[in-house]
Specification:
The chain has about 450 residues and is an alpha/beta fold. About 30% of the residues lie in helices and about 25% in strands. It contains 13 helices and 19 strands. Helix 6 crosses helix 8 (about 200-215).
Length: about 450
């Protein structure tokens, strides 16, 4: 450890491992340290014993839940968009070869106390039970417009500049009512609140196109994919990439002091009697509480079931979005469910996780609408955590801090944060072009 590195990374969460892997591939000498004795940090996947130790210290898991080693439960549950940024990170680095993904079977939205499959095309909109006849026609015309839209082809714009005019005006152009706006904005564009209404329409159009392209990628019934054995496999895969390119990993390593030079720039990290020198540090917020601020809170209820969720055609993997309008709150509620088919639980067991951004001091009550969709629950684990962001961009002191994981059910905002940190470090955008095959190890 008593060496000099281009970069020291603190924490083995997914964001930190992606940056560590990519910087290693680009020729940086990287030391990656974690105070924990396991990979993943907040993005780890835990077995049943680890879950009980985390949430109910000293309490043993009931035997009816099955073998502990068959569980790989995500603490921060998210799906990957099949053509989204996280997949582009995997393809850029070749890390996808270490992982095995499965398509998520169903994508649903909650409306009027019922679960509905999300329509994504004009023809699906016409057959959907979400809308009345006249609204179906308006929605179908709106989706046709989005499907044909190309920002660099004016003939597809129909005299509407999506880059400068707000989404509210695009809805008005097609006469789309508030109920349809709710499922379009939240179940297709995957916004978690209605703030997007006043922003340029192009953002939402591009999100709907991402949803459509991801849905078509594997000709499935949802746009999402998920790795077998849980999301904890992702940071380990990027850690393996970094190791192949010369990165050094140290787990269960105390971080006793961050060193700075006379100009206030970071110069090293001390662990016990050892000191590693560096030009910059990348870290998750927990390593720098004095350089971060709290911006919110997320509640997640992890539930073990012995049955699929009613109303979802007995599918083994699904997402249900409860838009804020239906929940009568400011943020959406997400319900994701995966099963033993994904090697995250014993056969016949299902892991359902209900999550939302907190708005009160009673998080369990905020999750109640999602929990009520699950039927009988065998075991619950309530995980409430603060969301932190860095107070500076890191350029002045060389300390680049990632943002905590938000309550959204997919990795797009996570990926955007990775791109932002990378640009702050290097001064340029990340090239997402996949590496030539002869460069992959």
């Amino acid at each position: 450890m008593n060496e000099e590195y281009d970069c020291i990374v603190l924490g083995t969460g997914l964001k930190e491992c992606i940056l560590s892997g990519i910087l290693s591939v680009e020729g940086k000498k990287v030391l990656h340290m974690d105070r924990n004795n396991y990979y993943g940090g907040e993005s780890a996947s835990l077995n049943l014993n680890q879950l009980f130790e985390k949430f109910f210290p000293g309490r043993k898991a009931p035997e009816n839940l099955g073998a502990t080693r068959e569980y790989n439960v995500d603490i921060v549950p998210k799906f990957l968009m099949a053509t989204g940024l996280m997949v582009k990170f995997l393809l850029k680095t070749g890390v996808e070869r270490y992982l095995e993904f499965q398509a998520v079977q169903g994508s649903y939205v909650y409306k009027d106390r019922k679960i509905h499959r999300v329509p994504t095309t004009a023809s699906e909109a016409m057959s959907s039970s979400l809308m009345g006849l006249f609204e179906k026609r308006r929605c179908a015309e709106f989706l046709k417009y989005v499907q044909a839209y190309k920002q660099d082809e004016l003939k597809t714009h129909d005299n509407f500049d999506c880059a400068s005019r707000p989404m509210s005006e695009l809805y008005s152009k097609f006469g789309v009512d508030a109920n349809t706006q709710s499922f379009v904005g939240h179940a297709l564009a995957l916004h978690f609140n209605d703030n997007y209404i006043t922003r340029p329409a192009l953002e939402t159009v591009e999100r709907i196109i991402l949803y459509r392209d991801s849905l078509m990628q594997y000709a499935g019934k949802s746009p999402y994919i998920y790795p077998r054995y849980g999301l904890g496999e992702l940071p380990q895969a990027f850690a393996r990439l970094a190791a192949i390119y010369g990165g050094t990993y140290m787990l269960d390593k105390s971080i006793d002091e961050i060193l700075y030079d006379s100009a206030g720039r970071v110069s090293g990290v001390r662990s016990g009697d050892e000191t590693a020198r560096c030009k910059m540090v990348i870290a998750d917020p927990s390593y720098f509480p004095n350089k971060t601020r709290r911006i919110g809170k997320v509640a997640r209820m992890i539930c073990i079931l012995d049955h699929p969720i009613s109303g979802t055609n007995k599918e083994n993997s699904i997402q249900i979005i409860i838009p804020q309008r239906e929940a009568r709150r400011q943020n959406d509620i997400y319900v994701m469910c995966i099963s033993g088919d994904h090697n995250v639980a014993p056969r016949g067991k299902y892991i359902a996780i209900v999550s939302t951004n907190c708005e009160t001091e009673n998080p369990e009550a905020e999750l109640r609408l999602g929990l009520d969709l699950l039927g009988q629950i065998q075991q619950t684990f309530l995980h409430v955590c603060d969301i932190y962001e860095p107070v500076t961009d890191g350029r002045s002191d060389g300390v680049f801090i990632t943002t905590s994981y938000d309550g959204q059910s997919h990795f797009e905002t996570t990926s955007v944060d990775v791109l932002d940190v990378y640009k702050r470090i290097t001064g340029h955008d990340m090239d997402l072009t996949p590496m030539p095959k002869n460069e992959e190890q």
